[in-house]
Amino acid sequence: MLELAAGTAALAVLAGYHTMAPRSQLYGQTFIGNRRRRQIALTFDDGPNDPYTFQLLDILAKHNVQATFFMIGQYVDQRPDIACAVADARHVVGNHTYTHPNLILRSEWQVRDEIVRCERALQDAVGDRYAKLFRPPFGGRRPASLRTIRKLGWTPVMWNVTGFDWDAKSAEYIEGKVTRQVKGGDVVLLHDGGHLQFGANRGFTVQAVEKLIRRYQGEGFKFRTIPEMMEESSKDDRRGTK
């Protein structure tokens, strides 16, 4: 009985791990990058956010880099002008739910409501200039939530490099976390806002992004949006089957 209980507990822990592990594909396929390419996709969660989203737009424009922004719907409703500025700069805009709940704790109906409300906010702010890309808050997902995401026509996007910038004490800290993980073909998770409140300080992230762009452009890496990386990954898959 003790062995059975221990085994059951171990399975429960393992199952819980895979609901949050960004690289896990146990509960369904998600996009996490393309290791066959020497490229990087910068992604920013939890915006739009004043003034840091604007600051990032300036840096990205300065270095001719396009990125992908996964936005919280309630912040889009609060500041549609920032969301519009991101779309105007031809960056990719994606869905990060309306209120940023952990989806493993939500019913299928609640997951649907979060996604649909965020999509309405994006539609009101930027029209059709958003991509059907969805990033679950905290990376949390279950088989049921992934099914709901896909039924609504969204493609789930995770990451394989984490900047740990939500409580960073310096830009150098963020840069170090990223550089220790980058190998090529990476989706990098960073934040231009904070899910707890609008106006979260992301000054260190802004500084780190410029450092990272300079570093990796100097090393010959190409910066891609998520749709660009997905398209190239699909082409690589087709070539591999020939």
Core attributes:
single chain, 6-stranded parallel sheet, two-stranded parallel ribbon, 13% strand, globular
Describe this structure as you would to a colleague:
- With 242 residues, the chain is of the alpha/beta class.
- It has a single domain (26-240), classed as Glycoside hydrolase/deacetylase (TIM Barrel, Alpha-Beta Barrel).
- Helix content is 47%, strand content 13%.
- The protein has 9 helices and 8 strands.
- The protein has helices at 2-20, 52-62, 73-78, 80-88, 108-126, 143-151, 171-179, 203-218, 226-240; strands spanning 39-47, 68-71, 92-95, 133-134, 155-156, 161-162, 186-191, 222-223.
- Strands 1, 2, 3, 6, 7 and 8 form a 6-stranded parallel β-sheet that branches.
- It is globular and about 45 Å long.
- Mean pLDDT is 92; it is low at 4-14.
